[in-house]
Amino acid sequence: QVQLVESGGGLVQAGGALKLSCTATGITFSDYDMDWYRQVPAKDREMVARIFSGGYTDYADSVKGRFTISRDNAKNTVFLQMNTLKPDDTAVYYCRGRRNGFRIEYWGQGTQVTVSS
Fold it and tell me: Would you say the C-alpha torsion 88, 93, 97, 98 has a positive or negative sign?
């Protein structure tokens, strides 16, 4: 049983901060690249941030300088620190794990982030 479980979403005012967590079970976490995506109704999921198994990171232009992705392999957890939140950051945030060198990926169920103006 593979499971990715997000937590940390909620309601925050513009300019505030949230830290999301995604904990994986059933996989060798250190072998997986981990991503954060977000989605709003009627739109495709958008890549927000990714951290490869070797520690390299990448971010969407819209969040550079505000969001930070990190991972703790000992805890099987990837984090997304979100600062200076804006109303257009409102979305359901999902984590994804992808096995290096394999066409295997797993998705969490998502956590809602709502930023009020």
Answer: negative
Closest CA to 37 of 24, 46, 28, 29: 46
CB 80 within 8 A of CB 19: yes
Tell me the β-bridge partners of 69: 80
Burial of 19 from C-beta contacts in 10 A (0-12 / 13-18 / 19+): middle
pLDDT (tens digit per residue) in 10-31: 999 999 999 999 999 999 999 9
Question: Which two tokens mark 98?
Answer: 């992808």
Question: Which residues is 9 bridged to in the sheet?
Answer: none
The position carrying tokens 């927000």 is 48
